[in-house]
Amino acid sequence: MSSRRLAAALAGGTAVLAVSLATALVAVSGAAASGPLLPSSDPFYAYSGSLAHLAPGTVLRRRTVSVVSSGISSATATQVLYRTTGELGQPTATVATVIGPAVQLGAPKLVSYQTAYDALGSECDPSYTLQGGNPGYSTAAEEEQVILAYVRAGYTVVVPDYEGERLDWGAGQESGYGTLDGIRAAENLLGVPVASTPVGMVGYSGGSIATEFASELAPGYSPTLDIVATAEGGIPVDFFHNLSYINGSPAWSGVIPAVLVSVGRAFGIDFQRYLSPYGVGVTNQVKGECINDFVGAYPGLTYQKLLKPQYQDIYKIADFVKVGDHLIMTRTGTPKGPLFIGVGDADGTGDGVMVTRDDLALAHTYCQRGVSVQFNQYGGDDHDQAAVPFEQGALTFLSERLAGTSVPDGCGSIGAGNSLTPLPVPIVAPKLKLKLTYLGPRKRLHGIVIELATSTASLRGLVVSLWRGRKLIARVKINRLTTSAHRVILRNRGHLPGAGRYTLKITEGKTTLLVRGVRIR
After folding, report:
1. Would 418 be classed as within a structural domain?
2. What are phi and psi of 99, to 5 degrees?
3. Residue 67 is part of a domain; what is its CATH number?
4. Which phi and psi (to 5°) does residue 74 adopt?
5. What is the C-alpha separation between 174 and 84, in angstroms, rounded?
6. Residues 329 and 235 sit within 8 Å (Cβ to Cβ)
7. Pair 120, 265 in one domain
8. C-alpha pair distances (Å), 7 with each of 147, 404, 491
9. Whole-angstrom Cα distance, residue 281 to residue 187?
């Protein structure tokens, strides 16, 4: 998506913003100084105090920075480190960039702009790229022009690092919390009344994840915020459907290993145990990259190639299904509305990465719950192309609502779309454990005695062996072992083994189930 195409889109939206965008590209304060520190190396991002007692949205730290466009300082902003909430409900901190208009006319009106930074490394953070960091990151450069256009139109724009400092890309609820708390932090910074300061939220692609979940969470998590409108486009509503769509694609399949890394971080799951050596290599490669680095880098990649042979059916991996179900949109809550939803349709299924009928289902579900929705399908447009009409429509939609104008409800023409029913979580049998109790030498039995049992179910064809170094001392077969204790006597040619250190091994075929060192005194 090019800046020129975005400029054309905005020009079609409102004349004020077309002029503002042109102005945003002009140097207003000379060349920028040396580049900013990476967030991973910048002490501003680190907070060592306790967060548990602080309210979400509390400002922990603030600083003034320059917004840099094409190497030129274009505006002044305030960055805040603020308290928010992680995917598992833990208190965390992240950063938002608050950019106000040069001249504030009347009470502030806020736009929370969630960029599509889709990041696994801190060099992708919007708080960093807005300062001129990572200048080759084209997605950030393009969206910066839209952000500056909103600012020139008179809005105060909040740009949160909603993935948090661990870069939990795709973690929907965490992204929603980070967005809502970024708004609260901005309002705390500005000292404006929370209940009467109108807020619009907007995000496309990766930014739509944060925007959508923020809209779902707001009624319960931050009910005092006056969110008057939400615009979201190119939305990954159901990750299972997106996975099927992009699996093996020439470009978008590159996001598969990246998402495994990011949601593993967010949910505390080690997905590497399911990965093939190739899968481990790819996930290690992408784990610090931005989306521009891995999209298109693995043409034709399938998730099957990333997984070990025994995990080829990813839908039988309980960890994966639980996370995917948790992230299906509409399950966390219901937005207050109204909503503006847009998605492309390049091939009859979707825009190349997003499934059109999933976005339709999202709109339909909210209509059924009484939310006012406008749904826009951009026929013939792929994901990048659809961003242009979406940004234009979102701009008009938010501007009308922030001005207090009502917007038409389009629910009457919105069809049902795809089913968003969660997948059944595979039932995982409890892990079978082998219990061994060493009872020690028994002279009258002329051997050492152990008791064996299983924790669940039964095992057949076990072999118990006693070794001294590399020398086999005794060997006993067990036809069937159950949860009831089974006594085994191990003798050395009919006699009690001599004093010393030994090793007990229990095997099933070629599989070693247990190894235990024992000592005979």
Report:
1. no
2. -115, 115
3. 3.40.50.1820
4. -110, -20
5. 9
6. yes
7. no
8. 12, 25, 86
9. 44
Tokens at 90, concatenated: 């833990």
The burial of 193, by beta-carbon neighbours within 10 Å (0-12 exposed, 13-18 middle, 19 or more buried), is given as exposed
pLDDT in tens, 476-505: 999 999 999 999 999 999 999 999 999 999
* DSSP-derived secondary structure for 273-332: GGB-HHHHHHHHHHTT-BHHHHTTSSTT--HHHHB-GGG--GGG-HHHHHHHHHTSTTSS
Q: Could you give the number of structural domains in the chain?
A: 3
Q: How many CA atoms lie within 13 A of 338 on its CB side?
A: 20
Q: Are residues 197 and 223 in the same domain?
A: yes
Q: Taking the model in full, what pTM does it have?
A: 0.80
Of 339 and 458, more confident: 339
Contact between 452 and 481 under an 8 Å Cβ cutoff? The reply is yes
Q: Residue 13 is inside which H or E element, if any?
A: helix 3-13
pLDDT tens across 293-330, in order?
A: 999 999 999 999 999 999 999 999 999 999 999 999 99
Together in a domain, 366 and 515: no
Taking phi first (over 0 means left), then psi (-120 to 50 degrees means alpha), and beta for anything else, what does residue 15 get? Answer: alpha
Q: Is residue 429 part of a domain?
A: no
